[in-house]
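Good morning,

Attaching, inline, the backbone tokens for the sequence recovery test we're adding to the shared suite. The designed sequence is right after.
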């Protein structure tokens, strides 16, 4: 049988603060009441949860395991209670958001900073990752929402709803040396030649590489040879400059390298592949007020700053 919430709450606050006296102040009860609740919980579980060391107490291994299990549950309850009790003008709680590293660095950090200026009661728990992992976490309800590349594709593949946030041009590129050794000239920008070269990808499945081939040639290779797998765009740029193969990179991140001929663009008769970054949520989950507020703020942020973002992309520099 699960111990009652009062015992668990007393245990949680003692574990968080490290002292019974601090926990008693937060709980607005006497120290003896907190101590009794801890003793009752230890008796019920037949397990020692703390090691007493003067005024402070330390979690035992069993206490640590219990705290790790309780922490997300009680935090979630606390957030919901704050939202239900709080005024409509002030938002409280934690937003769990997933996003790629580069998007977080270049855009999400500024978005969150602006949002918190108006809503200081909202905290953020950010998970960095690639779209397949982020979508999996979203579907398993470990994220409230996530920003994903190729959002239109993942929306067709998974039970998620999305809204467009940003479109970025992406090009297939390689180092000048790799180009001279393996491609030679634009006549060899063919499906047959390119599909047999080395690639650098975010994931083992080389998903974005297949998207590029589908866009430019209306077909995809059965497989591609990967020389490097790295989930960081900046790292992939570095590997590409070292001549390790071809990589699909947002154009605005490598404008200087293209101008100085350190990297070579692989052109075809079609326009550049356009990556659609979308905000994904679960369609059947009723969003909390802080989720609705953030999604609305996000749409307004990108609409309001679209000229600035376009200028930043064109200048290859983010302020």
């Amino acid at each position: 049988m699960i111990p009652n919430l009062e015992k668990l709450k007393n245990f949680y606050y003692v574990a968080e603060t490290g002292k019974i006296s601090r926990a008693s102040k937060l709980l607005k009860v006497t120290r003896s009441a907190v101590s009794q609740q801890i003793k009752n919980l230890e008796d019920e579980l037949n397990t020692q949860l703390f090691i007493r060391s003067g005024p402070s107490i330390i979690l035992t291994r069993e206490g640590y395991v219990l705290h790790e299990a309780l922490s997300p549950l009680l935090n979630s309850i606390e957030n919901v209670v704050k939202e239900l009790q709080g005024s409509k003008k002030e938002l409280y709680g934690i937003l769990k958001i997933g996003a790629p590293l580069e998007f977080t660095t270049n855009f999400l950090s500024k978005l969150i900073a602006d949002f918190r200026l108006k809503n200081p009661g909202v905290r953020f728990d950010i998970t960095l990752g690639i779209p397949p992992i982020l979508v999996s976490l979203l579907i398993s309800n470990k994220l409230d929402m996530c920003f994903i590349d190729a959002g239109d594709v993942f929306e067709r593949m998974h039970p998620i709803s999305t809204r467009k946030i940003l479109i970025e041009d992406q090009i297939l590129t390689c180092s000048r040396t790799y180009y001279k050794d393996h491609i030679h000239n634009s006549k060899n920008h063919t499906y047959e030649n390119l599909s047999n070269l080395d690639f650098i990808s975010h994931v083992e499945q080389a998903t974005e590489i297949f998207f590029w081939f589908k866009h430019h040639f209306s077909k995809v290779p059965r497989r591609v040879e990967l020389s490097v797998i790295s989930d960081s765009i900046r790292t992939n740029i570095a590997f590409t400059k070292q001549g390790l193969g071809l990589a699909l990179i947002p154009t605005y991140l490598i404008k200087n390298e293209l101008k100085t001929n350190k990297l070579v663009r692989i052109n075809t008769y079609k326009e550049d592949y356009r990556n659609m970054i979308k905000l994904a949520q679960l369609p059947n989950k009723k969003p909390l007020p802080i989720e609705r507020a953030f999604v609305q703020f996000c749409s307004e942020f990108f609409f309001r700053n679209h000229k600035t973002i376009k200028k930043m992309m064109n200048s290859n520099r983010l302020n």
